[in-house]
Amino acid sequence: MVEHRTSPHHSGPGRAAEKPHDHDACIDTAIARARALCEERSVQLTPIREKVLQIVWRSHKPVGAYQVLDELSRTHKAARPPTVYRALDFLIAEGLIHKIESLNAYLGCGEAGVAHTSQFLICRSCGTTEEIVDPKLDQALDAAAKRARFTVERKVVEIAGLCGRCAG
Amino acid sequence: MVEHRTSPHHSGPGRAAEKPHDHDACIDTAIARARALCEERSVQLTPIREKVLQIVWRSHKPVGAYQVLDELSRTHKAARPPTVYRALDFLIAEGLIHKIESLNAYLGCGEAGVAHTSQFLICRSCGTTEEIVDPKLDQALDAAAKRARFTVERKVVEIAGLCGRCAG
DNA sequence: TGGGGGGATGATACAATATAACTTTGGGGC
DNA sequence: GCCCCAAAGTTATATTGTATCATCCCCCCA
User: Fold this and answer.
1) Residue A137 contacts B, CB cutoff 8 Å
2) Where, in this chain's numbering, is Zn(2+) bound (chains A, B) (predicted)?
3) How far apart are CA B93 and CA B140, in angstroms?
4) Mind listing the pLDDT tens digit for each residue in A68-93?
């Protein structure tokens, strides 16, 4: 169900099919960054929140809230849906994870702490979802909204299809 | 709950705050187009499907499936969730409505029968959701996907914020 | 030092969205 | 008449997400 360290997959925008991906390091980096950011912002990355962040980061596939709950329950018997949704809400508010709307699922944010708008490439075959940051695309969104006299607050861009690995 | 004929709101991409919108005519056009398209394609726009299409078209706000169910039940006592979801699935497959993923709700398609990829501007204040078709934006999406060696099958672009009317 | 406030979590219940699986209906072709 | 098939009926359940109130715990500070 969950990907572990040895599974090789691509790691960054526009750089598919390169060297294997050390996912443990990937998680560790994300957690360390999250700790630093929460420290900076004087918000609490509590044990539950950190655990949920870790669970979401265990793969590069979006994870459902109840899947998070299952995992969390193993170490935290008292966990219930609100436990998970509160943690997810916190992590989203702090920009540490994203919600993938078309899947009702959650994904670790690869750009935590950096101002950005991201887009997602969701492979329907392997489930791997890549976060990309494309300023041109983002500008095109802003321009389109502006033409319609629309004030943008939130952007959802999710592209579903086949990743290079699965199509190739 | 539902908007009726006299409610004026803007009607097309990039043309906010113009003359009142005759929504009855808007619905009628959509239904007529749907009939013609289904005829052409030899698929059945059954009474239930047409009624659901009409319900979705009653406003320019996305409508939830259970809201559709409530309305449908008034004239169709046997209606149940599968009744509605089947009709919605059919209408989506035929390109007559769209699902707004970030709201889990459904919206009439203003470009039925024309090949297009659309984007949505969702006003958080009044709920009105405008479908726009912006080829530049669409190209930017394709270009971004291509750079990541990703084969696009479906695109979800939803921008939430304030429409001109509500921001102004 | 103990009382109050607030953020986080516990706990229970439920709401909202969506699908599975099997049955029945009805119209068209043979 | 009989079969076939798409559509709709029917029942049950799965999945996703919230509301609400209680409790805990830490920090502040009078």
Assistant:
1) yes
2) 123, 126, 163, 166
3) 25
4) 999 999 999 999 999 999 999 999 99
